[in-house]
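Chapter summary example.
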Amino acid sequence: MTEGQDVTWRSRVKAIFDVVFRVPSIYVMDSILKDQLPIPWTTESHIMWRITGFLVAVGVFVLTPDVLLRVYSFIGGVLIALIVYWWNSYYIAHYLQQTSSDNAQTSMNVLEDHMFVYGLVLLAVMTVLYTFTRGYAHAVVGNYILISFTIPQVAVLTMPRWVIEMSLQASLVMSYGELVTCAVVNGVYIIYLSRFLIPVVFQLIRTYGIQAFVESTWIRLHIPDVLRVFWLTRIAAQAVALVYFVVIEENDARVVWYLPDSSEWWEIVKDLMVSGCDSMFTISGMSSVIAIIMHNVGLLLQKFLNVEDTEEKRIGTVSAVLFFILAVQTGLTGLERKKRLVRLGRNMGLLTTAIFHFIHNMVHPRLMTLSAQHTIDMRRHYPPLTVSAFIFFVPFYLIYLLWSNSSFSTWLLAVTVFTVELLVKVLATWFQYALLLIDARREQYWEKLDDYLYYIKSTANSIEFVFGIFLFLNGSYVFFFESGGTIRAIMMCMHAYFNIWVQGKEGWRTFMMRRTAVKKINALPEATTAELTRFNDVCAICYQELTSARITPCKHYFHAMCLRKWLYVQDHCPMCHRKLYQTDEPQSSSEEENPDVLDFDMADDD
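The structure predicted for these 606 residues follows.
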């Protein structure tokens, strides 16, 4: 193993332990929020205990790895001391039961007792582990720990009965005296470190901003990985418990192991899914699991489509955020178990449709790029065509199943509109792809191509705009008559602004720009065949042969379509930069095509 590989291996192991050490804090915070910790607090101090425990768990969670190791070493020392105390108590009780004041065992009889030998071995192992958790290397401290652990074992050899009974308390006092000393030292160290780090944190926030600080802290604490491990371990433990109880129930409380059938497995899966979204931490953990799954799906699609350096790597983050928003907006954690399962299924349906929209945004530019190439290699066209066919026919079939097996509801309307919007996008992509593919095989310039592409885009965008209005109305009905909420109101406002107002304004501006450009082009004289023959040159914009052209006031010849695109930008001649039109109408430099905006925020209705 080279030095670089050794450093990489050490960094990975350190990152794994950093994640594992932070997971228990999530369990504690989750239990406190759900009020499941077995702590005998009174009603008066209930809230105070919960707040204090939650803040302590948060404080442990954000500690640096070195300090976190100190904390868990201390906790490990406490557990070892408890084990030693339990064993000494058990052995002393056993010894006193076997002996009496008039018939005491000799030292040789005690040494021949197997429990005494086993106890010495156990205490030796506990001493080594305790010393390891403390990090002590000094012989004096190690001897002190060994003596404190083995006092009761040694006392039974020669000491009287009252000394043996007192040795147990002496061992406990010595052990926990060392623990208290360690706690004080570590507490002083943490306080000193906090006094040093808090000013540094404020200085970082003032220098780089709160966003940069949050992002760096998010990465340093490995929050997605911690939430992912928390959710998976919790689900795994519940799965083992559910399988065990199913087996006991089927065999009248007699444990006879067998493989559950398909119906039992399905019930187990449903129960796990319901339990996996019963709190905000489990929702966050499930979102992290969805994020890593969709991230890998995005990487596979990126490799399959042969695209590089795209923003589609964000599909994991987008999927996780969308799932979390849907869960919070619909109040998933506060529903009954049966209703929660239904709502989870509906949210996953909406999430799947939104992911299909995102995949379409990956496929569309790839198909447009391939169709515009003059050299057509169909082997490169098959992957994006296959993916586009998949995101067209699979949602279509799913909608068919939903309408066949589900009752009418506002949620069914929302998911149907959301899916039909996807189908319209895919059809528009196919039509544009076909036109561009035909144009690539033509030998002459296709002047009407831009018009045809504009008609397809404008039709698709108009349908999406109408669907956006429908989703807003559907969401408004749900908000006022079914289930309201602050989150839903915020998402409705965002949908109304981005997917209705902004998209409608951009579409109208594009339409007005195009209409103005068409009027200007129609005002220019069209070149006759004789003029084109006499000119005998190509269009200075596209460098294609002039089969038809418009003549500018400065006597330059251009394709009407090329000149129209130029007029979207400015009113000057492309050749001599002379003013073509004397008008005070301001021209906008916006692009013709509007960006696609997913309407997922309104597609979460009941």
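To summarize the output: The longest strand covers residues 550-551.
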